[in-house]
Amino acid sequence: MIKRPAKGASGAGAHDERRIPNATVGRLVTYLRILDRVRQDGIERISSAELSERAAVSAFQVRKDLAYFGSFGTRGAGYAVASLSKELEGILGLSRSWNVAIVGVGRLGEALAHYPHLERYRFLLRALFDVDPEKVGRTISGAHVHPVDRLADVVRDLRIDIALLTVPADAAQPAADRAVAAGVTGILNFAPVVVTAPPHVHVEPVDFLAGLKRLSFHLHDADAPAVDVVPGDARAEPA
Amino acid sequence: MIKRPAKGASGAGAHDERRIPNATVGRLVTYLRILDRVRQDGIERISSAELSERAAVSAFQVRKDLAYFGSFGTRGAGYAVASLSKELEGILGLSRSWNVAIVGVGRLGEALAHYPHLERYRFLLRALFDVDPEKVGRTISGAHVHPVDRLADVVRDLRIDIALLTVPADAAQPAADRAVAAGVTGILNFAPVVVTAPPHVHVEPVDFLAGLKRLSFHLHDADAPAVDVVPGDARAEPA
DNA sequence: TATTGTGAACCGGTTCACAGCG
DNA sequence: CGCTGTGAACCGGTTCACAATA
Predict the structure, then answer these.
(1) A54 and B205 in contact by Cβ < 8 A?
(2) Confidence band of A3 (pLDDT split at 50, 70, 90)
(3) Which residue of B has its CA nearest to A25?
(4) In Å, what is the separation between the CA of B12 and the C1' of D4?
């Protein structure tokens, strides 16, 4: 039943048996969301066609994505919503909790701290950091705001896994370096700069300004046919 | 074979018929940022190698990306920072201004409204919308908060180009539909759902929750925690 | 029969080697 | 001689056709 990344086999997961396309990981997140939604409607089974339509991708894509990790469906019938949901949670590492810290308590940092879905998905806000003494000492969503000088200690003590970087562009790379040195292995970078880190650390950019500028390109480009991303057609299997 | 580069200064009518990879567009944004930064340091010329290093990509990639649009460099020497900057701005459609509206005045919507770089890049906040009567009537960063019922009228009157969707997941698709019907052609979707739109509308997702979950996957994957009994091969994989 | 699972073809983007030019 | 510009090879991800099977 429990199929782990790629072929199960014995021994610990260790190395990557198969390289998972980054795009696939992103779609798995989408599938999981859809399954959660669908489950709330009391639906217990779903086909790859139906799932694909809601995710705005092809049914082939859905099946291929899932196939990287095992066989979760039933031929003839589709997938059991509850069990596939569980599987995806396991695959995505969402069946455990993660300790997160927010570095940079500006408007965005504060907005994130208050975001209710964080805790819901077991991303536990454990600490915040800021240079401004004015902000240090406050408690937001149950977490303390520390001075950045204390970052190393606090990150180590609280075993922070992931840092949410919401500092100004200039401060992003230094902050990332410090977080990494203190043991963080995941960085969600909201700053509008490229942040680099050693290979064992994963950096995910969340760059709305860049998104805005990509939009600008496409609108400016006027009649150019849609490039990527835009669904445009949600065709399933050709009849 | 025939490649009609959209060269020719930063003229407006530069809609080329070449398919630009979405990833390329994203990198152009990065290059432009780097050039702006570099220019502030008084540097006037830069090579593809140097640019590529700061953007964390290969030099081949930089040259190929630029080649989609023309030849902006000087062989032997590199690129003139100022002029390449100008070119990229033109290509990305950043030499004109765009009218934007924020739909959903929660914490995130408000944080975005106060973001100073918006105006700096000529994304002009013209209106905000919310269902909450409590919020309607306020003025944030010089823009009025309207009831969502008025969305169609206001979007049309103010010629809004881009909608920033900062509403809850359930409200995202309906809000997008209304914005599109009123003439918006670009949507920056912050809600954690797939939003679809007709082909002439471009949707860019900015999904930090998804980013967090992708991080979770990678950390989970690399993690070989198993408090003990981890068969050899403890090395992290290279790039 | 309906729908999943998958090897193989296909396509697009990245990498490369080198031609072109200052 | 150095660095850009680009046709071509390469590679990874998507698409597809079909075999497997409940």
Answers:
(1) no
(2) very low
(3) B214
(4) 26
CATH numbers and ranges of domains, chain A:
22-91 (1.10.10.10), 98-212 (3.40.50.720)
Q: Which two tokens stand for residue A122?
A: 């077991």
Query: Among all residues of chain A, which has the CA nearest to that of B212?
Result: A188
pLDDT score at A225: 36
CA A216 vs CA A149, A186, B186: distances in Å: 39, 30, 8
Rounded to whole angstroms, the Cα distance separating A54 from B196 reads 10
Under 8 Å between Cβ of A127 and A101: yes
Chain B touched by A12 (CB under 8 Å)? yes
A109: Cβ–Cβ under 8 A, 6 or more apart, which residues? A102, A103, A128, A130, A164, A166
How does residue A214 score in pLDDT terms, banded at 50, 70 and 90? Answer: very high
Measured CA A172 to C1' D10 distance, in angstroms: 36
Our CA-based measurement puts residue A190 at a distance from the nearest CA of chain B, in whole angstroms, of: 9
Q: What pLDDT score was predicted for residue A116?
A: 85
Provide mean pLDDT across the span A8-12: 30
Cβ contact, residue pair A206, B206, below 8 Å:
yes
> Cβ of A194 and B55 within 8 Å?
yes
Nucleotide nearest to B3 (CA to C1'): D6
Provide the pLDDT for residue B227: 32
| Residue-wise DSSP of A157-197 | HTT--EEEE-S-HHHHHHHHHHHHHTT--EEEE-SSS----
B59 touches strand D (CB under 7 A): yes
Which nucleotides of strand C are protein-proximal, with an atom < 7 A from a CB? 1-7, 12-17, 20-22
> Taking the C1' atom of C17, which residue's CA lies nearest?
B60
What distance in Å separates residue B36's CA from the closest CA in chain A? Answer: 12
Is the CB of residue B105 less than 8 Å from the CB of residue B129? yes
Mean pLDDT, residues A95-114: 96
The alpha carbon of residue A219 is apart from the nearest alpha carbon of chain B, in Å, by: 7
**DSSP class of residue B193?**
S
What parts of chain B have a pLDDT lower than 70? 1-18, 223-239
The residues with which A128 forms a beta bridge, in sequence order, are A102, A145
Calpha distance B175→B219 (Å, rounded) = 35
Angle at B126 between CA B121 and CA B132, to 5 degrees: 125
CA–CA distance, A163 with A56 (Å, rounded to integer): 31
Give the three-class secondary structure for B204. strand
